[in-house]
Design brief:
Layout (H helix, E strand, L loop, with lengths): L4 E2 L11 E2 L6 E2 L9 H7 L9 E7 L4 E4 L3 E3 L6 H9 L8 E8 L7 E13 L2 E16 L2 H6 L7 E6 L6 H13 L5 E6 L3 E6 L2 H14 L2 E13 L4 E12 L7 E3 L2 H6 L6 E7 L3 E4 L6 E4 L1 H6 L4 E3 L5 E15 L2 E10 L10 E5 L10 E6 L8 H4 L9 E7 L12 E2 L6 H8 L3 H23 L1 H4 L5 E2 L9 H6 L23
Parallel strand pairs: 1-9, 4-9, 10-14
Antiparallel strand pairs: 2-3, 4-5, 5-6, 7-8, 8-9, 10-12, 11-12, 13-14, 15-16, 15-19, 16-17, 17-18, 20-21, 20-23, 21-22, 23-24, 25-26
Length: 506
Amino acid sequence: MSNYTPLEPTEQQGVATVLCCNCGVPMDGTTGLVMCYDCIKLTVDITEGIPREANVSFCRNCERFLQPPGQWIRAELESRELLALCLRRLKGLNKVRLIDASFIWTEPHSRRIKVKLTVQGEAMTNTIVQQSFEVEYVVMAMQCPDCAKSFTANTWRAAVQVRQKVPHKRTFLHLEQLILKHNAHVDTISIKEAKDGLDFYYAQKNHAAKMIDFISSVAPVKSKKSEELVSADIHSGTSTYKFTFSVEIVPICRDDLIVLPKKLAHSLGTISRLVVCSKVSNTVQFIDPNTLQIADINSNVYFRDPFPVLCNRTELIEFIVLDVEPTGETRGNYILADITVARAADMGNNDQEYYVRSHLGGLLNPGDSADGYFLANSNFNSDLFDELDSKNVLDVVLIKKHFSRSARRAKKRAWRLRRMAKEHQDIVANDESRQAKQEQEKAERDYEIFLQELEEDPELRQTVNLYKADEAPAPENEADMDEDDDAPEIGVDELLDELDEMTLDE
């Protein structure tokens, strides 16, 4: 740069020898210039050939920008990635030297992006000029090829079929929230509801493998792969396949009563064979309500020798707690206690009481209600249950504390969840058959039970994102609501704003 003359106003070091050919101002002729620096800036435009307007392509569905020739990238507004994309769209920028580039704020809904550029270029011989200008980009809405495939049938290359053979949908409701929280469905072409689960469709095999890895990290599963030949080229030796991954979740849910096989119970530290499922993650956790002994099994152990569930949540019966006597033994949040209970249906009819030992000593107090399995008056078609010694089997197994809820509680919730996979629901809503209405009522009932579980379990709430409801109407009579509604409520500090999902519905 030593041969170039910087065009900056400096103190004259010599005597003016020439006049500016444009304005006539005296200037130093030893610099070799015939114009003063003011006239050069006014008459010479080094940005000539650089357009002041350009277009960028944007997919509304997946919110990605097109980077020519065919790559679609994700870029936030006013991010470095978007700035680099905009600069690549300008022609003639390689003829000058880029000094600075920055965004000028515009309304997000205006579909306009403004960038201020500062460049340097050679105006005359041995003369460098620096100029600034603005470029306006128009955001053109279009559809990327991946989103176009999602609206076209039979364009997927890999499918993941997730199934669980249980009479409810609560497991998939929780799995749906985990997928939404971790954004695991970002590469999914489409999601459809099936009879016993969900189907995920992908354009590439590795995207399906990522979903299987995610599901395996949050649920006990086993998977199996199959492939179907679509086409083959005998000249080049290339073939096209469609891959289908079958994922089966262990059919054991939280609060289920299970009778373990004798061999498995001995391998788990000689735990009692009659246990309760206390937690389901990538392993299944059991607890013995008599001794507070805890054991875990993974999916490989279960599918090596599967065993059925003795009782599920639909068979719970309400009991009234009459007396609680803690034994002093604790383990984590569980406190072992001897509890006297009576069936809520028998109150006022007979004085039949049941003396049981339970792990809920820290939750129950005299006068509370509890949900449990009534084994004394039940007949089970189970060979594993018949092997147990009937003298050592409890008459009642308490599972959870029972909360009374008013009919208006569901309408006054101040929070909500995000949902996905609406295809099957829309079909059912348009079907007027009795079976379709029953399935829709069952789905709504399972969803309400899942919301109640979130209200009762703070640990479960940590795994999902809860959002503030659009409108939270207050109850008409606060006194009446407090009398017949003692269920816990979710605090406002645990809720998220809707800013994270504002663009999902656009």
